[in-house]
Design a protein that fits this description.
359 residues; D-Maltodextrin-Binding Protein, domain 2; 2 domains; three-stranded mixed β-sheet; Phosphate-binding protein
């Protein structure tokens, strides 16, 4: 005896007992996740995408409410360690030392990817001639943007910037560097790149989610840096691409390892991600200076961090359901917002990893 089941236009025939068991299972799952609330915190890098996902997921699953606070990767990981959240997010995953502090275990899941751009404000002020407006993709050589963050190049009409941008009228305007004040995965990714391309940066500043900046002023989160860039003529700072896109900031074309000037586009970022091989044990990997001729140089995944064990098994199941939805249906929102969808291979890796969540 069999029953007919139609799904997305396709008809399947299943044994009747299987259909009944499936209905019973779905009913049990729905009953288990009634009025469940989860709380997460961490990176601001994926926050616009998470906001969309959580809204869409809640509409489809009204009894599940998931809240996320963009407080920076460092603070998110710390809250996961302290057990005050159900999950966290980090643009640098989690270190072995940090993971060892979490008795319930931790699983790192790459849910999206994107680029970090150098956004700048060279819109003319009321006192400036419109001729000095530079809103096209200004080219910045590798050594130039390192020297800007080191405080060695301090004016926009510097000869090295002019040489890379022939025909562009650059303003005689001081460069105002803007950086993050909070412990940030975005900062870590940027400084890893700067250390990879500049021995001077590596020795003087180094890498980390918080570093001793040589110059500039700080803003909290990607949104804080974005706001300061908008407000300060001559500003330049680093933000996740989505924040620059949403706020219509000008962004620089950066010189990559092959000597090409590349802007952050879905294609150039995807080319970089192709070279990132995620290990099977923790799905965390980076590429600090891609070699592909058409690769954008500053790219990262962003990881959702879950516990391995949840005292409340319903929460574990809800997170499994949400992650499975995010890597399939949720990816459809990625390009629209400026993120890069996961490859099929990474989706399979994430789906395998979420099965490690004990429920």
């Amino acid at each position: 005896m069999s029953a007919q089941l139609q799904f997305k236009g396709r008809v399947f025939f299943l044994p009747l007992i299987a259909v009944l068991l499936n209905i019973a299972s779905c009913t049990a799952n729905n009953r288990n996740i009634n009025r469940v609330s989860l709380v997460g915190a961490g990176a601001s890098f994926p926050a616009p995408l998470y906001e969309r996902w959580l809204s869409d997921y809640n509409q489809q699953n009204p009894n599940v409410e998931i809240n996320y606070q963009a407080i920076g990767s460092s603070a998110g990981v710390q809250q996961l360690i302290e057990g005050t959240v159900d999950f966290a997010a980090s643009d640098v995953g989690i270190t072995n030392e940090q993971a060892a502090k979490i008795k319930r275990g931790v699983i790192a899941l790459p849910l999206t990817a994107g680029s970090i751009v150098l956004a700048y404000n060279l819109k003319p002020s009321a006192q400036q001639s419109p001729q000095v407006n530079v809103q096209t993709d200004l080219r910045l050589p590798r050594q130039v943007y390192v020297d800007i963050f080191l405080g060695k190049i301090t004016n926009w009409n510097h000869p090295k910037i002019a040489a890379a941008n022939p025909g562009v009228i650059l303003p005689d305007l001081p460069i105002q560097v803007v950086h993050r004040t909070d412990g940030s995965g975005t900062t870590s990714v940027l400084t890893q790149h700067l250390s990879a391309i500049s021995p001077e940066w590596k020795s003087k500043v180094g890498t980390g989610k918080a570093v001793a900046w040589q110059v500039g002023i700080g803003g909290k989160g990607n949104e804080g840096v974005t706001a300061l860039i908008q407000q300060i003529p001559g500003a330049i700072g680093y933000v996740e691409y989505v924040y620059a896109k949403q706020n219509k900031l000008s962004v620089a074309a950066l010189e990559n390892k092959s000597g090409n000037y590349i802007t952050a586009t879905p294609k150039s970022v995807a080319r970089t991600l192709e070279a990132v091989k995620l290990p099977t044990d923790n799905l965390i990997a980076f590429i600090t200076d891609p070699t592909d001729a058409q690769s954008y140089p500053i790219v990262t995944y962003s990881w959702l961090l879950t516990y391995h064990q949840y005292p409340n098994p319903v929460k574990g199941q809800v997170l499994k359901n949400f992650v499975d939805w995010a890597v399939i249906d949720g990816q459809k929102s990625s390009l629209e917002l400026g993120y890069i969808p996961l490859s099929k291979k990474v989706v399979v890796q994430v789906q395998s990893a979420i099965n490690k969540i004990a429920d």
